Amino acid sequence: MLFNSLNFALFVPVVFVFYWFVTNKSLTLQNILLLVSSYFFYACWDYRFLFLLIFSTFLDFYTGRKIYTAKRPSNKRFWLWLSVGINLGFLGVFKYYNFFAGSFTELLSQFGVRASFTTINVILPVGISFYTFHGLSYVFDIYHKRIIPVKNFIDYSVFVSFFPLLVAGPIERATHLLPQIQQRRTFDYTKAVNGLKQILWGLFKKIVIADNCAEFANMIFNNYPHYPGSTLVLGALFFTFQIYCDFSGYSDIALGVARLFGIELLRNFAYPYFSRDIAEFWRRWHISLSSWFKDYLYIPLGGSRGNTWSRIRNTFIIFLVSGFWHGANWTFLAWGALNAIYFIPLLLSNRNRTHIEIVAKGKLLPTLKDGLNILVTFALTVFAWIFFRSDSITAAFHYIKGIFSRSLFVLPTGDSLAGGTSNVVTIILLTVIFIVIEWLGREQQFAIAATGKVWLKPFRWVFYLTIVISIFYFSGIQQQFVYFQF
User: 20 to 30 A Cα–Cα from 402, which one of 61, 305, 388, 479?
Assistant: First the structure.
């Protein structure tokens, strides 16, 4: 059930009506409704993996209580590592087993040893990386005495499987979401309207920008040997906006839908392409995952404390693990390593926290220095995305080699792009309009959060209607959300 599907457009209002008009007098009934709705939502993807979600939920609920009640530190560690081992075991089997089996076979062949490991032919359970990390954060926080375990299994189950965040995040923390689930919620008209606006903007980003960019990005990356360097640059740019608008669009819809039910989820994106260095980019891109790795991996490893070697080691670990989290392919590891290389000079020179506030706050335009920094950071990011998008390391290097050739200075034409130059120009113009709106709204939680607040009501409604019409008129071929595969 895609967020941009008719089924979801019918599903949400039905749940909304039952939530606020049938079960509104009982918090328990509201939470049961959310849980049943979430399980139904997940079962629409593949009901066979619903047992895995329920088992993972029960495992962390039970081990969390055992960690809390255990008297001896060794017993606490036992229950913690039991939860970690089983959760990562499931993740490893479904997501990484074939990768390791194939890589090990290839490695042995380099030494003349012929071996064959049986691979498993099974689809990846959607959302497994996300709900696994929800549960792990819960048991980690109990182990470190940041929270006490939940007594109500229904409440905890809603925390793990709340349908707006279930399949692609944001990765929630028990300290943030559980108190909202356990407290009585009342309908807030302002919050609901804000949620609808964020849903609208998320749909625009996904349907108009991401899906259209995906069509050209896929065509160029899948046939890169046949295109000039200029077209390959265009393909990298198309993917850069595809992945941002696809994933942040999903997050906007998730946050907006959650607001309809009186729940605030963690912000996941904060205009990352307006960053002035890579450190700022990673504070603004997939915030819930970056902060998860920082709190549960980077800081326990020692963080930025210690000697130079320790700081470099920890940085590489965090970025490599982040890359590997995205999938079982060497391209993701290369993407993570490249971002670590970008980040380390900032870390060693203590400039990794230079840019905390959004660029040009309170101003219309950035300074020349900030503008140049944004362009350089954006270029580095686009280059790294080539590895992320490519099917293999070899393909990524060939793609880059194709860019840095004399054909880089050949203008792309309709002959080299299916659909012709006019379609490409249309998508580029829509993307430019999108960038302008994001820039003007960059100090808000999402780009159109404050747009039109001081306008007369008719003008405000014309603005929203224009977005709705754009969604229908400029909609691209429907694409699955990129992060569903992670």
Answer: 479
Which of 176, 326, 355, 398 is flagged as catalytic?
Answer: 326
Cα distance between residue 175 and residue 90, in whole Å: 25
Report pLDDT digits (tens) over 289-346.
999 999 999 999 988 888 889 999 999 999 999 998 888 789 999 999 999 999 999 9
Q: How far is it, in rounded angstroms, from Cα 479 to Cα 467?
A: 20
Residue given tokens 């409440």 in the structure block = 155
Q: List the one residue out of 16, 39, 28, 22 whose CA is nearest residue 155.
A: 28
Burial 373-400 (b: 16+ CB within 10 A, else e): bbeebbebbbebbbbbbbeeeebbeebb
> Token digits for 358?
């959004």
Domain ranges for the chain? 6-186, 191-276+355-485
**What gap in Å lies between CA 200 and CA 253, rounded to an integer?**
8
Residue 326 among the catalytic residues: yes
Question: How far are the Cα atoms of 218, 326, 348, 431 from residue 424, in angstroms, in the given order?
Answer: 14, 29, 42, 11
**Distance of alpha carbon 458 from alpha carbon 462, whole angstroms:** 6
Burial class of residue 228, CB neighbours in 10 A (0-12, 13-18, 19+): buried
Read off the pTM. 0.93
- Residue 297 is encoded by which pair of tokens? 């991996």
